[in-house]
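lol ok so funny story. i was supposed to be doing the assay writeup but got distracted and ended up predicting the structure for this chain instead. priorities right. anyway since i did it might as well share w the group, maybe its usefull for someone
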Amino acid sequence: MISRIDLRGATLPEGGALRDLLPRAEFDVEAALEKVRPICEDVHHRGTAALIEYARKFDGVELEQVRVPAEALKTALEELDPAVRAALEESIRRARIVHREQRRTEHTTQVVPGGTVTEKWVPVERVGLYAPGGRSVYPSSVVMNVVPAQEAGVESIALASPPQKPAFEGDPAGGLPHPTILAACALLGVDEVYAAGGAQAVAMFAYGTEECPPANMVTGPGNIWVAAAKRYFTGKIGIDTEAGPTEIAVLADATADPVHVAADLISQAEHDPLAAAVLVTDSAELADAVERELEPQVAATKHVEDRIKPALAGKQSAIVLVDSLEDGLKVVDAYGAEHLEIQTADAAAWAARVRNAGAIFVGPWAPVSLGDYCAGSNHVLPTGGCACHSSGLSVQSFLRGIHIVDYTRDALAEVTHHVVTLAEAEDLPAHGAALKARFGWKVPRS
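and the output, tada:
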């Protein structure tokens, strides 16, 4: 059901050579880019008409308008299962606690007497958020996108999610995003919601349409077409990350419970047939026990043939055997997992040494599923090894740092000769002249 990679008995290679030995899903955004380019440009030129056509082509629904009526949001919240509402409210509450603490404050540094640099943090004006709605529906992603944007102080927030086919003839929810998505938006006070999915939704936010003003930034997970559209618009709009298939890596030793480890691997495999599930361990006995556990646990759940089995059997998933936890640490740092669980003795100490991960889950009582919903952390995280240079979504994602430079005449005079010297060293004499002009073309000396 899951392959093995045995790295025991030899010195582990460094850097890219080690990464090349590890499993990873194939996710060719560059190839997808050529397919989304005409879609994006069609939305640019035809706006809402193009979005309606793509809803018919890709989602199998007939739309009269793309923006979701306010009444539909209200109805979705009123009809939401009370238990689901309570769970969403708790998820929102915990996310707000964590994300509110992330907001940065303005800070002024006196560089010299009379010379200060202030860094102020300004939210982007308008963001477009994306909530997937293909194989599964993710109201939790609504929470994870909206909460940090709100806590950052973003004034204009819009959300897009794919329209759903009607469940029966005359279904009032047909052509709208999933009702749980709409209910989550209503709970969060987001009233600008669009029935649009895939690359066309990203293009709607990037270019704007008759119904939707353009956004400064687009965030949120999605399929390869969403990732490709984000790449297409990089530079025109801000993005969070080109999210790929979800990943879990578990660093475990002989103290780990194989029942827990198997369950956690399966929990990510159920997302998608390209989802990655990786166990890194120095215990062959644990590896054997986890393999034995996978069979009955997979058989007892849903989405077995179309998601879980292909994901576990795919080249992106494996049990990786190492000689020691030190080697295991090198492996998980080289892998840079979206989600990394540490299930070892003294798990907190090992977690503290990890350099590359989207989020780290410490010990047996902090599974990835907790982070997906109710830990308070954000589940929009870097994938595909991008955790070695990128962070997950946070309040900071929606803020821009702006430096404000304020110098008096004396403070400028004191440093002018250095500025002139450096300008001339770079053969940019006009840079120095801009200071000389303020002092009668003479360079003051401190």
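The mean pLDDT is 95. The first strand starts at residue 4 and ends at 6.
back to the writeup now i swear
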